[in-house]
Write a structure and sequence with these properties.
By secondary structure, the protein is α/β, with parallel strands linked by helices. It is 27% helix and 14% strand. The protein has 15 helices and 21 strands. It has a five-stranded mixed β-sheet with strand order 6-9-10-14-13. Helix 2 crosses helix 3 and helix 13 crosses helix 15. The longest helix has 16 residues. The chain is elongated, with a radius of gyration of 30 Å. This is Putative ATPase with chaperone activity, associated with Flp pilus assembly.
Protein backbone atom coordinates (compact mmCIF):
# COMPACT_ATOMS: atom_id res chain seq x y z
CA UNK A 1 0.00 0.00 0.00
CA UNK A 2 1.35 3.42 -0.96
CA UNK A 3 1.47 5.73 2.07
CA UNK A 4 -0.52 8.95 1.68
CA UNK A 5 1.46 12.03 0.72
CA UNK A 6 2.30 14.27 3.66
CA UNK A 7 1.30 17.94 3.21
CA UNK A 8 4.10 20.41 3.40
CA UNK A 9 3.32 22.87 6.22
CA UNK A 10 3.80 26.57 5.61
CA UNK A 11 3.33 29.47 7.95
CA UNK A 12 0.89 31.54 5.98
CA UNK A 13 1.16 30.74 2.29
CA UNK A 14 2.53 33.22 -0.22
CA UNK A 15 2.74 36.67 1.32
CA UNK A 16 -0.07 38.90 0.29
CA UNK A 17 1.02 42.26 -1.14
CA UNK A 18 1.16 44.97 1.48
CA UNK A 19 -1.20 47.82 0.74
CA UNK A 20 0.97 50.74 -0.19
CA UNK A 21 4.08 48.86 0.98
CA UNK A 22 7.51 49.50 -0.34
CA UNK A 23 9.03 46.07 -0.10
CA UNK A 24 8.35 42.37 0.12
CA UNK A 25 8.42 40.21 3.21
CA UNK A 26 10.04 36.80 3.11
CA UNK A 27 7.63 34.06 4.16
CA UNK A 28 8.60 31.97 7.15
CA UNK A 29 10.04 28.51 6.36
CA UNK A 30 7.98 25.35 6.98
CA UNK A 31 8.10 23.58 10.32
CA UNK A 32 10.09 20.34 10.74
CA UNK A 33 8.18 17.07 10.39
CA UNK A 34 6.35 15.77 13.42
CA UNK A 35 3.42 16.84 15.53
CA UNK A 36 4.72 16.88 19.10
CA UNK A 37 4.65 20.04 21.13
CA UNK A 38 6.96 21.17 23.83
CA UNK A 39 8.07 24.01 26.00
CA UNK A 40 9.28 27.40 24.90
CA UNK A 41 12.60 27.18 23.05
CA UNK A 42 15.68 28.53 24.71
CA UNK A 43 17.08 31.41 22.70
CA UNK A 44 19.43 34.24 23.62
CA UNK A 45 17.65 36.92 25.65
CA UNK A 46 16.68 40.22 24.06
CA UNK A 47 19.39 42.87 24.44
CA UNK A 48 18.65 45.79 26.63
CA UNK A 49 17.06 48.17 24.92
CA UNK A 50 11.95 74.77 31.46
CA UNK A 51 10.87 75.39 34.69
CA UNK A 52 9.67 78.99 34.03
CA UNK A 53 6.34 80.73 34.62
CA UNK A 54 4.30 79.66 31.62
CA UNK A 55 0.94 81.03 32.69
CA UNK A 56 -0.40 84.46 31.91
CA UNK A 57 -2.73 86.56 33.99
CA UNK A 58 -6.32 86.14 32.89
CA UNK A 59 -7.00 88.46 29.99
CA UNK A 60 -10.40 90.02 29.34
CA UNK A 61 -9.98 89.98 25.60
CA UNK A 62 -12.46 87.75 23.77
CA UNK A 63 -11.12 84.47 22.55
CA UNK A 64 -11.64 83.35 18.99
CA UNK A 65 -12.15 79.61 19.22
CA UNK A 66 -12.80 78.99 15.57
CA UNK A 67 -10.80 76.14 14.15
CA UNK A 68 -8.16 77.00 11.58
CA UNK A 69 -9.24 76.18 8.05
CA UNK A 70 -7.93 73.08 6.35
CA UNK A 71 -4.95 73.41 4.01
CA UNK A 72 -5.65 74.18 0.38
CA UNK A 73 -4.49 70.76 -0.81
CA UNK A 74 -5.80 67.80 1.18
CA UNK A 75 -4.48 64.24 1.02
CA UNK A 76 -6.52 61.77 -0.87
CA UNK A 77 -7.76 59.94 2.20
CA UNK A 78 -9.82 62.76 3.73
CA UNK A 79 -13.07 64.38 2.66
CA UNK A 80 -12.56 68.11 2.27
CA UNK A 81 -14.18 70.22 5.03
CA UNK A 82 -17.29 72.06 3.92
CA UNK A 83 -18.92 74.70 6.09
CA UNK A 84 -22.67 74.58 6.76
CA UNK A 85 -23.21 71.69 4.36
CA UNK A 86 -25.34 68.63 4.97
CA UNK A 87 -24.19 65.38 3.33
CA UNK A 88 -27.04 62.93 3.17
CA UNK A 89 -28.65 60.62 0.68
CA UNK A 90 -30.27 57.21 0.62
CA UNK A 91 -28.39 54.26 -0.71
CA UNK A 92 -24.78 54.61 -1.88
CA UNK A 93 -25.16 58.18 -3.15
CA UNK A 94 -21.94 60.18 -3.03
CA UNK A 95 -21.59 63.93 -2.92
CA UNK A 96 -18.98 66.55 -3.73
CA UNK A 97 -19.22 70.15 -4.72
CA UNK A 98 -18.56 73.78 -4.02
CA UNK A 99 -22.04 75.18 -3.22
CA UNK A 100 -22.26 76.78 0.24
CA UNK A 101 -25.20 75.79 2.44
CA UNK A 102 -26.83 73.57 -0.22
CA UNK A 103 -28.03 69.99 0.26
CA UNK A 104 -27.56 67.57 -2.62
CA UNK A 105 -29.65 64.46 -2.53
CA UNK A 106 -30.36 61.72 -4.98
CA UNK A 107 -31.78 58.19 -4.77
CA UNK A 108 -29.97 55.06 -5.71
CA UNK A 109 -26.40 54.98 -6.98
CA UNK A 110 -26.44 58.49 -8.43
CA UNK A 111 -23.09 60.31 -8.49
CA UNK A 112 -22.61 64.04 -8.29
CA UNK A 113 -19.86 66.49 -9.15
CA UNK A 114 -19.93 70.11 -8.12
CA UNK A 115 -18.72 71.88 -11.25
CA UNK A 116 -22.27 72.83 -12.37
CA UNK A 117 -24.57 75.02 -10.32
CA UNK A 118 -27.68 73.17 -9.13
CA UNK A 119 -27.33 70.29 -11.63
CA UNK A 120 -27.32 66.53 -11.00
CA UNK A 121 -25.37 64.08 -13.11
CA UNK A 122 -27.11 60.73 -13.18
CA UNK A 123 -26.47 57.69 -15.33
CA UNK A 124 -29.33 56.86 -17.64
CA UNK A 125 -31.18 53.59 -17.03
CA UNK A 126 -29.36 50.67 -18.48
CA UNK A 127 -26.08 52.55 -18.81
CA UNK A 128 -23.00 52.00 -16.63
CA UNK A 129 -22.69 54.23 -13.63
CA UNK A 130 -20.15 57.03 -13.35
CA UNK A 131 -16.71 55.52 -12.81
CA UNK A 132 -14.89 58.61 -11.55
CA UNK A 133 -13.19 59.12 -8.19
CA UNK A 134 -14.68 57.34 -5.21
CA UNK A 135 -16.14 60.10 -3.02
CA UNK A 136 -16.43 58.13 0.20
CA UNK A 137 -13.17 59.47 1.56
CA UNK A 138 -10.60 58.10 -0.86
CA UNK A 139 -9.64 59.09 -4.38
CA UNK A 140 -8.81 56.65 -7.12
CA UNK A 141 -5.06 56.19 -7.65
CA UNK A 142 -3.51 58.73 -9.96
CA UNK A 143 -0.23 60.47 -10.53
CA UNK A 144 -1.24 63.21 -8.12
CA UNK A 145 -2.62 60.84 -5.48
CA UNK A 146 -0.48 57.69 -5.33
CA UNK A 147 -1.68 56.53 -1.93
CA UNK A 148 -3.62 53.26 -2.13
CA UNK A 149 -3.70 52.23 1.52
CA UNK A 150 -6.77 51.55 3.66
CA UNK A 151 -9.60 54.03 3.64
CA UNK A 152 -9.65 56.47 6.56
CA UNK A 153 -12.78 58.17 7.80
CA UNK A 154 -13.01 61.91 8.22
CA UNK A 155 -14.27 62.89 11.65
CA UNK A 156 -14.94 66.06 13.58
CA UNK A 157 -12.47 67.45 16.06
CA UNK A 158 -13.89 67.56 19.55
CA UNK A 159 -14.85 71.06 20.57
CA UNK A 160 -14.35 72.55 17.10
CA UNK A 161 -17.66 72.57 15.30
CA UNK A 162 -17.51 72.00 11.58
CA UNK A 163 -13.80 71.13 11.49
CA UNK A 164 -12.72 68.02 9.61
CA UNK A 165 -9.73 66.04 10.78
CA UNK A 166 -7.74 62.91 10.11
CA UNK A 167 -9.37 59.97 11.87
CA UNK A 168 -7.76 56.52 11.45
CA UNK A 169 -10.56 53.99 11.07
CA UNK A 170 -10.34 50.66 12.87
CA UNK A 171 -9.19 48.02 10.34
CA UNK A 172 -11.72 45.26 9.79
CA UNK A 173 -9.60 42.95 7.66
CA UNK A 174 -5.91 42.16 7.35
CA UNK A 175 -5.66 43.97 4.02
CA UNK A 176 -6.90 47.19 5.66
CA UNK A 177 -3.92 47.17 8.04
CA UNK A 178 -1.50 47.49 5.12
CA UNK A 179 0.46 44.50 6.50
CA UNK A 180 0.98 40.95 5.27
CA UNK A 181 -0.15 37.89 7.21
CA UNK A 182 3.48 36.79 7.54
CA UNK A 183 4.49 40.07 9.20
CA UNK A 184 1.64 39.86 11.73
CA UNK A 185 2.50 36.22 12.44
CA UNK A 186 6.06 37.25 13.21
CA UNK A 187 4.78 39.87 15.66
CA UNK A 188 2.67 37.22 17.42
CA UNK A 189 5.61 34.81 17.68
CA UNK A 190 7.89 37.52 19.11
CA UNK A 191 5.23 38.58 21.61
CA UNK A 192 4.91 35.00 22.86
CA UNK A 193 8.67 34.48 22.95
CA UNK A 194 9.40 37.54 25.09
CA UNK A 195 6.40 36.99 27.38
CA UNK A 196 6.60 33.19 27.67
CA UNK A 197 2.82 32.75 27.49
CA UNK A 198 -0.06 35.14 26.81
CA UNK A 199 -3.81 35.19 26.48
CA UNK A 200 -5.24 35.92 23.07
CA UNK A 201 -6.65 39.26 24.19
CA UNK A 202 -3.26 40.26 25.62
CA UNK A 203 -1.57 39.49 22.30
CA UNK A 204 -4.14 41.68 20.52
CA UNK A 205 -3.51 44.46 23.04
CA UNK A 206 0.25 44.18 22.49
CA UNK A 207 -0.18 44.45 18.71
CA UNK A 208 -3.02 47.05 19.00
CA UNK A 209 -5.02 45.09 16.44
CA UNK A 210 -8.65 43.85 16.64
CA UNK A 211 -9.04 40.65 18.64
CA UNK A 212 -10.89 38.87 15.84
CA UNK A 213 -8.04 39.56 13.41
CA UNK A 214 -5.38 38.31 15.86
CA UNK A 215 -7.46 35.20 16.67
CA UNK A 216 -7.39 34.21 13.01
CA UNK A 217 -3.60 34.64 12.89
CA UNK A 218 -3.12 32.54 16.05
CA UNK A 219 -5.39 29.82 14.70
CA UNK A 220 -3.24 29.60 11.57
CA UNK A 221 -0.12 29.23 13.72
CA UNK A 222 -1.83 26.49 15.74
CA UNK A 223 -2.64 24.50 12.62
CA UNK A 224 1.07 24.57 11.74
CA UNK A 225 2.02 23.46 15.28
CA UNK A 226 4.01 26.62 16.05
CA UNK A 227 1.63 27.65 18.86
CA UNK A 228 -0.24 25.51 21.34
CA UNK A 229 -2.95 26.13 23.93
CA UNK A 230 -1.73 25.86 27.49
CA UNK A 231 -5.14 26.34 29.12
CA UNK A 232 -8.02 28.72 29.71
CA UNK A 233 -7.58 32.18 31.15
CA UNK A 234 -10.04 31.56 33.95
CA UNK A 235 -12.50 34.24 32.87
CA UNK A 236 -14.97 34.06 30.01
CA UNK A 237 -14.99 31.75 27.04
CA UNK A 238 -13.60 31.98 23.55
CA UNK A 239 -10.23 32.10 21.84
CA UNK A 240 -9.28 35.47 23.30
CA UNK A 241 -9.27 34.03 26.84
CA UNK A 242 -7.10 31.03 25.98
CA UNK A 243 -3.47 31.01 27.11
CA UNK A 244 -0.99 30.33 24.29
CA UNK A 245 2.66 29.33 24.27
CA UNK A 246 5.26 28.41 21.63
CA UNK A 247 6.15 24.84 20.69
CA UNK A 248 9.56 23.31 20.04
CA UNK A 249 8.90 23.23 16.29
CA UNK A 250 9.14 27.01 16.07
CA UNK A 251 12.79 27.20 17.20
CA UNK A 252 14.40 27.53 13.77
CA UNK A 253 11.66 29.78 12.48
CA UNK A 254 11.86 32.07 15.50
CA UNK A 255 15.63 32.36 15.21
CA UNK A 256 15.23 33.65 11.67
CA UNK A 257 12.50 36.06 12.77
CA UNK A 258 14.67 37.50 15.56
CA UNK A 259 17.62 37.79 13.20
CA UNK A 260 15.53 40.08 11.01
CA UNK A 261 14.42 42.36 13.86
CA UNK A 262 13.52 42.16 17.54
CA UNK A 263 10.76 44.75 17.44
CA UNK A 264 8.11 43.76 19.98
CA UNK A 265 5.32 46.28 20.12
CA UNK A 266 2.22 47.63 18.36
CA UNK A 267 1.91 46.75 14.70
CA UNK A 268 3.28 49.50 12.44
CA UNK A 269 1.30 51.45 9.85
CA UNK A 270 2.34 51.81 6.23
CA UNK A 271 4.64 54.63 5.23
CA UNK A 272 2.15 55.94 2.66
CA UNK A 273 -0.58 56.18 5.28
CA UNK A 274 1.76 58.04 7.62
CA UNK A 275 2.63 60.59 4.91
CA UNK A 276 -1.05 61.17 4.18
CA UNK A 277 -1.78 61.68 7.89
CA UNK A 278 1.03 64.22 8.29
CA UNK A 279 -0.29 66.23 5.34
CA UNK A 280 -3.83 66.22 6.71
CA UNK A 281 -2.74 67.29 10.22
CA UNK A 282 -0.41 70.00 8.92
CA UNK A 283 0.82 72.81 11.13
CA UNK A 284 0.77 75.18 8.14
CA UNK A 285 -1.98 77.58 7.15
CA UNK A 286 -3.22 78.58 10.60
CA UNK A 287 -5.31 81.67 11.27
CA UNK A 288 -4.13 82.68 14.72
CA UNK A 289 -5.36 86.01 16.07
CA UNK A 290 -4.17 88.20 18.92
CA UNK A 291 -7.29 87.45 20.98
CA UNK A 292 -6.77 83.71 20.58
CA UNK A 293 -3.10 83.92 21.56
CA UNK A 294 -3.71 85.80 24.81
CA UNK A 295 -5.69 82.89 26.18
CA UNK A 296 -2.95 80.34 25.38
CA UNK A 297 0.01 81.79 27.29
CA UNK A 298 -1.51 81.55 30.75
CA UNK A 299 0.25 83.79 33.29
CA UNK A 300 3.37 84.31 31.20
CA UNK A 301 4.31 88.00 31.38
CA UNK A 302 5.46 89.09 27.94
CA UNK A 303 5.41 92.38 26.07
CA UNK A 304 3.02 93.25 23.28
CA UNK A 305 5.75 93.24 20.65
CA UNK A 306 6.29 89.54 21.37
CA UNK A 307 2.69 88.77 20.42
CA UNK A 308 2.99 90.89 17.27
CA UNK A 309 6.18 89.03 16.33
CA UNK A 310 5.24 85.41 16.93
CA UNK A 311 1.63 85.61 15.68
CA UNK A 312 2.43 86.12 11.97
CA UNK A 313 5.26 83.58 12.23
CA UNK A 314 2.85 80.92 13.51
CA UNK A 315 0.38 81.71 10.74
CA UNK A 316 3.16 81.13 8.22
CA UNK A 317 4.06 77.82 9.89
CA UNK A 318 7.66 78.20 8.72
CA UNK A 319 10.39 79.15 11.18
CA UNK A 320 11.38 81.82 13.69
CA UNK A 321 14.72 82.88 15.16
CA UNK A 322 14.82 84.04 18.80
CA UNK A 323 17.84 85.90 20.14
CA UNK A 324 18.56 87.89 23.25
CA UNK A 325 20.12 87.61 26.71
CA UNK A 326 19.62 84.38 28.68
CA UNK A 327 16.91 83.79 31.24
CA UNK A 328 14.16 85.88 29.64
CA UNK A 329 11.70 83.21 28.58
CA UNK A 330 12.54 82.16 25.02
CA UNK A 331 11.82 78.52 25.84
CA UNK A 332 8.68 79.40 27.82
CA UNK A 333 7.38 81.46 24.89
CA UNK A 334 7.75 78.41 22.64
CA UNK A 335 5.75 76.34 25.13
CA UNK A 336 2.94 78.86 24.87
CA UNK A 337 3.19 79.00 21.08
CA UNK A 338 2.55 75.29 20.62
CA UNK A 339 -0.69 75.68 22.59
CA UNK A 340 -1.93 78.13 19.97
CA UNK A 341 -2.02 75.46 17.27
CA UNK A 342 -5.50 74.05 17.47
CA UNK A 343 -6.58 70.50 18.09
CA UNK A 344 -4.87 67.21 18.83
CA UNK A 345 -3.29 64.85 16.31
CA UNK A 346 -2.71 61.14 15.76
CA UNK A 347 0.85 59.79 15.92
CA UNK A 348 1.63 56.18 14.96
CA UNK A 349 3.51 53.91 17.34
CA UNK A 350 5.69 52.85 14.42
CA UNK A 351 5.75 52.85 10.62
CA UNK A 352 7.00 50.28 8.12
CA UNK A 353 9.53 51.31 5.45
CA UNK A 354 10.88 48.59 3.15
CA UNK A 355 10.18 45.95 5.83
CA UNK A 356 12.13 48.01 8.39
CA UNK A 357 10.27 49.20 11.48
CA UNK A 358 10.72 52.85 12.50
CA UNK A 359 9.47 53.82 15.96
CA UNK A 360 7.92 57.30 16.13
CA UNK A 361 5.79 57.58 19.27
CA UNK A 362 7.90 58.63 22.26
CA UNK A 363 6.22 58.75 25.67
CA UNK A 364 8.81 61.29 26.83
CA UNK A 365 7.93 63.76 24.05
CA UNK A 366 4.29 63.10 23.16
CA UNK A 367 1.49 63.96 25.58
CA UNK A 368 -1.37 61.49 25.23
CA UNK A 369 -4.94 62.83 25.09
CA UNK A 370 -7.57 60.84 26.96
CA UNK A 371 -10.42 59.55 24.81
CA UNK A 372 -13.91 60.85 25.32
CA UNK A 373 -16.43 58.44 26.91
CA UNK A 374 -17.49 55.90 24.34
CA UNK A 375 -14.61 56.67 21.98
CA UNK A 376 -12.52 53.63 22.97
CA UNK A 377 -12.06 51.33 20.02
CA UNK A 378 -13.54 53.85 17.57
CA UNK A 379 -10.19 54.34 15.82
CA UNK A 380 -7.13 52.34 14.85
CA UNK A 381 -5.22 51.80 18.11
CA UNK A 382 -1.93 51.64 16.24
CA UNK A 383 -2.23 55.44 16.34
CA UNK A 384 -1.91 57.45 19.56
CA UNK A 385 -4.03 60.55 20.09
CA UNK A 386 -1.68 63.29 21.32
CA UNK A 387 -1.29 67.01 21.77
CA UNK A 388 0.74 68.74 19.11
CA UNK A 389 4.30 68.04 20.24
CA UNK A 390 6.99 70.47 21.36
CA UNK A 391 10.38 68.81 20.94
CA UNK A 392 13.31 70.69 22.49
CA UNK A 393 16.91 69.83 21.66
CA UNK A 394 19.92 71.71 22.98
CA UNK A 395 23.66 71.43 23.21
CA UNK A 396 23.52 67.62 22.94
CA UNK A 397 22.35 67.78 19.30
CA UNK A 398 24.60 66.21 16.66
CA UNK A 399 24.15 65.67 12.93
CA UNK A 400 23.78 61.92 13.46
CA UNK A 401 20.73 62.52 15.66
CA UNK A 402 18.95 64.18 12.70
CA UNK A 403 18.88 60.95 10.68
CA UNK A 404 17.25 57.57 11.21
CA UNK A 405 19.00 55.86 14.13
CA UNK A 406 19.51 52.15 13.42
CA UNK A 407 20.30 49.77 16.25
CA UNK A 408 22.19 46.68 15.04
CA UNK A 409 21.27 44.87 18.27
CA UNK A 410 17.49 45.08 17.86
CA UNK A 411 17.54 45.76 14.09
CA UNK A 412 14.96 48.50 13.86
CA UNK A 413 15.05 52.29 13.64
CA UNK A 414 14.32 55.17 15.97
CA UNK A 415 12.90 58.25 14.24
CA UNK A 416 14.94 61.47 14.45
CA UNK A 417 13.79 64.47 16.49
CA UNK A 418 12.32 66.41 13.57
CA UNK A 419 10.23 63.39 12.55
CA UNK A 420 8.89 63.02 16.10
CA UNK A 421 8.01 66.74 16.05
CA UNK A 422 5.88 66.38 12.89
CA UNK A 423 2.67 68.46 13.00
CA UNK A 424 4.12 70.30 15.99
CA UNK A 425 7.05 72.49 16.97
CA UNK A 426 10.79 71.82 17.08
CA UNK A 427 12.94 74.15 19.21
CA UNK A 428 16.69 74.13 18.70
CA UNK A 429 17.66 75.71 22.02
CA UNK A 430 21.09 77.13 22.87
CA UNK A 431 21.82 77.33 19.16
CA UNK A 432 25.56 77.71 18.62
CA UNK A 433 26.54 75.62 21.66
CA UNK A 434 26.22 72.22 19.95
CA UNK A 435 29.20 69.98 19.38
CA UNK A 436 28.68 70.40 15.64
CA UNK A 437 29.55 73.77 14.10
CA UNK A 438 26.65 76.21 13.54
CA UNK A 439 27.46 76.33 9.81
CA UNK A 440 27.14 72.55 9.39
CA UNK A 441 23.94 72.50 11.42
CA UNK A 442 22.42 75.31 9.36
CA UNK A 443 23.36 73.57 6.12
CA UNK A 444 21.46 70.51 7.37
CA UNK A 445 18.29 72.59 7.87
CA UNK A 446 18.34 74.79 4.75
CA UNK A 447 16.69 72.31 2.35
CA UNK A 448 13.89 71.16 4.73
CA UNK A 449 13.05 74.78 5.60
CA UNK A 450 12.83 75.66 1.91
CA UNK A 451 11.04 72.62 0.43
CA UNK A 452 9.13 71.07 3.39
CA UNK A 453 10.85 67.76 2.54
CA UNK A 454 13.55 66.05 4.59
CA UNK A 455 15.92 63.45 3.19
CA UNK A 456 16.72 60.50 5.43
CA UNK A 457 19.01 57.54 4.78
CA UNK A 458 18.47 53.88 5.61
CA UNK A 459 21.47 51.84 6.71
CA UNK A 460 21.23 50.09 3.34
CA UNK A 461 22.11 53.41 1.68
CA UNK A 462 18.64 54.08 0.29
CA UNK A 463 17.48 57.71 0.41
CA UNK A 464 13.98 58.41 1.69
CA UNK A 465 11.80 61.52 1.35
CA UNK A 466 9.69 62.31 4.40
CA UNK A 467 7.47 65.35 4.98
CA UNK A 468 9.01 68.15 7.03
CA UNK A 469 5.80 69.53 8.54
CA UNK A 470 7.38 71.23 11.56
CA UNK A 471 7.28 74.76 12.91
CA UNK A 472 10.98 75.24 13.62
CA UNK A 473 12.31 77.73 16.16
CA UNK A 474 15.96 78.59 16.76
CA UNK A 475 16.93 80.19 20.06
CA UNK A 476 20.30 81.59 21.10
CA UNK A 477 21.81 83.98 23.63
CA UNK A 478 24.98 84.39 21.56
CA UNK A 479 25.69 87.12 19.03
CA UNK A 480 23.63 86.19 15.93
CA UNK A 481 26.22 87.77 13.61
CA UNK A 482 28.69 85.06 14.65
CA UNK A 483 26.25 82.20 13.98
CA UNK A 484 24.10 82.77 10.90
CA UNK A 485 24.65 83.84 7.31
CA UNK A 486 22.46 85.49 4.68
CA UNK A 487 21.22 82.15 3.29
CA UNK A 488 19.87 81.15 6.69
CA UNK A 489 18.32 84.55 7.39
CA UNK A 490 16.54 84.44 4.03
CA UNK A 491 14.88 81.10 4.87
CA UNK A 492 14.04 82.06 8.45
CA UNK A 493 11.93 85.08 7.66
CA UNK A 494 10.90 85.97 11.20
CA UNK A 495 13.54 87.16 13.68
CA UNK A 496 12.59 88.30 17.16
CA UNK A 497 14.67 89.72 19.98
CA UNK A 498 13.45 88.71 23.44
CA UNK A 499 14.36 91.67 25.61
CA UNK A 500 14.80 91.98 29.36
CA UNK A 501 11.78 92.96 31.48
CA UNK A 502 11.47 96.48 32.85
CA UNK A 503 10.81 97.28 36.50
CA UNK A 504 7.03 97.07 36.23
CA UNK A 505 7.24 93.65 34.57
CA UNK A 506 9.73 92.55 37.20
CA UNK A 507 7.07 93.32 39.84
CA UNK A 508 4.42 91.49 37.80
CA UNK A 509 6.56 88.37 37.43
CA UNK A 510 7.31 88.39 41.18
CA UNK A 511 3.60 88.60 41.93
CA UNK A 512 2.81 85.68 39.60
CA UNK A 513 5.55 83.53 41.11
CA UNK A 514 4.45 84.32 44.67
CA UNK A 515 0.95 83.16 43.81
CA UNK A 516 2.28 79.95 42.24
CA UNK A 517 4.56 79.23 45.23
CA UNK A 518 2.00 80.15 47.89
CA UNK A 519 4.05 83.04 49.34
CA UNK A 520 2.35 86.38 50.19
CA UNK A 521 3.37 89.07 47.70
CA UNK A 522 4.86 92.24 49.20
CA UNK A 523 5.51 95.08 46.73
CA UNK A 524 7.54 96.99 49.36
CA UNK A 525 9.88 94.02 49.77
CA UNK A 526 10.43 93.84 46.01
CA UNK A 527 11.16 97.60 45.99
CA UNK A 528 13.74 96.99 48.74
CA UNK A 529 15.31 94.26 46.62
CA UNK A 530 15.58 96.58 43.60
CA UNK A 531 16.84 99.62 45.56
CA UNK A 532 19.41 97.59 47.49
CA UNK A 533 20.71 94.99 45.10
CA UNK A 534 19.93 96.22 41.56
CA UNK A 535 20.24 100.00 41.21
CA UNK A 536 23.52 100.50 43.14
CA UNK A 537 25.40 98.03 40.92
CA UNK A 538 23.41 98.58 37.67
CA UNK A 539 22.31 94.96 37.71
CA UNK A 540 20.05 94.13 34.73
CA UNK A 541 16.69 92.45 35.23
CA UNK A 542 16.02 88.94 33.92
CA UNK A 543 12.66 87.21 33.72
CA UNK A 544 13.97 84.11 35.52
CA UNK A 545 15.27 85.99 38.57
CA UNK A 546 11.98 86.34 40.50
CA UNK A 547 11.44 82.59 40.31
CA UNK A 548 15.01 81.74 41.34
CA UNK A 549 15.22 84.25 44.18
CA UNK A 550 11.82 83.22 45.55
CA UNK A 551 12.85 79.56 45.56
CA UNK A 552 15.95 80.46 47.59
CA UNK A 553 13.83 82.48 50.01
CA UNK A 554 11.59 79.43 50.54
CA UNK A 555 14.59 77.14 51.06
CA UNK A 556 16.15 79.50 53.61
CA UNK A 557 12.85 79.94 55.49
CA UNK A 558 12.40 76.18 55.77
CA UNK A 559 15.97 75.87 57.04
CA UNK A 560 15.27 78.46 59.74
CA UNK A 561 11.94 76.89 60.62
CA UNK A 562 9.85 79.95 59.77
CA UNK A 563 7.05 80.73 57.34
CA UNK A 564 8.33 81.76 53.89
CA UNK A 565 7.83 85.50 53.39
CA UNK A 566 9.43 88.31 51.41
CA UNK A 567 11.48 89.89 54.19
CA UNK A 568 14.67 91.97 53.79
CA UNK A 569 16.67 89.38 55.71
CA UNK A 570 15.60 86.45 53.55
CA UNK A 571 16.02 88.48 50.34
CA UNK A 572 19.54 89.52 51.39
CA UNK A 573 20.41 85.90 52.04
CA UNK A 574 19.00 84.82 48.65
CA UNK A 575 20.99 87.52 46.81
CA UNK A 576 24.26 86.51 48.48
CA UNK A 577 23.85 82.93 47.27
CA UNK A 578 22.54 83.78 43.79
CA UNK A 579 24.52 86.73 42.38
CA UNK A 580 28.22 85.89 42.35
CA UNK A 581 31.09 86.42 39.94
CA UNK A 582 34.43 84.66 40.10
CA UNK A 583 37.22 87.11 39.41
CA UNK A 584 39.93 85.48 37.30
CA UNK A 585 42.64 87.70 38.79
CA UNK A 586 41.74 87.10 42.43
CA UNK A 587 41.12 83.99 44.42
CA UNK A 588 38.06 85.40 46.18
CA UNK A 589 34.52 85.54 44.82
CA UNK A 590 32.70 88.84 45.00
CA UNK A 591 29.09 89.79 44.55
CA UNK A 592 28.44 91.22 41.13
CA UNK A 593 25.90 91.61 38.39
CA UNK A 594 24.36 88.55 36.74
CA UNK A 595 24.54 88.50 32.99
Amino acid sequence: MVPPAQPTPVLSGPPRPRAGGTGATTALPPRPPGANTGSRPALPPEPDEPDFPTERRAANAPVDRRAPPAPATLPSVIIAPQESRERRGPGPSQFTGAEEGRERRGPGPSQFTGAEEGRERRAAPGQPQYNGPDRRGTIAPSASAPYVGPERRAGRRAGEEGAERFWPAQPRTLSETGLTATFVEELVLKALFFAGEMRGMDIAARLQLPTSLVDDIIEGLRRQKYVDIRGGGGSGVGKSTMIYQLTTFVTDVLRQVLDRNRYNGPAPVSFQEYVAAVKQQTVRGNRITRARMQDKFGDLIIKDYIFDGIGPAMNSGRAIFFYGPPGNGKTAICQGMVNCFGGDIFIPHAILIDDFVVRIFDANLHKVVEDEPGAAGSYDRRWVRCRRPLVVVGGELTLEMLDLVYSPEVKYYEAPFQMKASNGMLLIDDFGRQKVSPKDLLNRWIVPLESDIDMLTLHTGKKLQVPFDVFAAFSTNLDPSDLVDDAFLRRVRYKLEVQRPDEDQFHDIFQVMCRKRGVPYDAAAVDYLIDTHYRPVDRPFAACQPRDLLDQVIDMAHYQGIEPRLTPELLDSAVRGYFVRFDKDKSSATSASAG
